[in-house]
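Hi there,

I know you've been waiting on this one. I reran it after we fixed the sequence typo, so this is the corrected version. Both the input and the resulting structure follow.
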Amino acid sequence: MTNTQEHFNFFPAIFLFLFLMTFTTLAHGTTPISVKTIEPNLYMMNGLGYDVNVTFLVTEEGVVVIDAGNNFNEGKTIVNKIKEITNKPIKCVILTHYHSDHYYGITGFPQGTPIIAQENCAARINPTSPFFKFFMEKILPEQIKQTQQKFESLKQSNSPELKQAESELKEMLDTREALDKLVSMNIKATTTFDKKYDMTVGKEKIELLFPGPTHTDGNIIVYLPGRKVAIMGDLFFNGTFPYIDFDAGCNTARWIECLYELQKMEINKVIPGHGPIATKETLKTQAEFLTDLRKAVKDALDKGLTLDEMKKTIMLEKYKNYRMPFFRENNIESVYQEMTPAKK
């Protein structure tokens, strides 16, 4: 076990949050929350906000949960869904990375639930950071105020956009509640690691693997060797434009390498951070997308195009049927920043 890091730039998380708030209603509530049996005692929950997947493993000793949903209410829902299946206690929550849709729901779990995270992820979720004070006192209140004003205006005009604005406001209020609890309960990772962490719960062996910077600088793969199942977090968006977090240390070149390296492992089933269950062969589609994206940006750079010109011309038509197309510009900008570090 190692100590969590204390110093890094929290502020890019603000912009990710605002981006998620803008689009979360597109995925939130479109399908009922359900639990799918992947294998005996291994389950995946979907229908949560932002199309995020939460996985849990029931062992003789207790339940291991991978990721925690987006807010307090989702966390409570996850806990209650687990109780419908087993009366065994939740032993721990493993976080695949720090983004809010995978983490903020921890506030709805029993207080004191152990949290396991890679070192860089652990540093980013530390509630004692100045980020939380700045975000809660400045950014979030202003966003709530603006959304309340928008809601009241649409209500007066009986606009068809009223329902979406109401959903956005509810998401923000839920997020404020989750953040209040993160701070008041001082929730942080209790176990951290660098490259690899092996654990056994009951008779289940679990391997936590850090492949280096990919989607962020703290993403991990949760591998169940006895079942040959890989739980990928946001290293894998199945059929969806990914979010690429440049400011949190992403590396799309390393991401591609990682996805191909996984082809050498014994994996029969893959659980993505977003999208349906797949096989390891499907991981190649994510690698191909990232390869095509990098090539398109490199070609545009060679032609002397500016970033704004790239956003207007790189349409990635091959992937026009992918969900979450609003992440296309984020994808282009993140790869642009990777390839032109001097222009950051």
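Quick highlight: The longest helix spans residues 130-157.

Best,
R. S.
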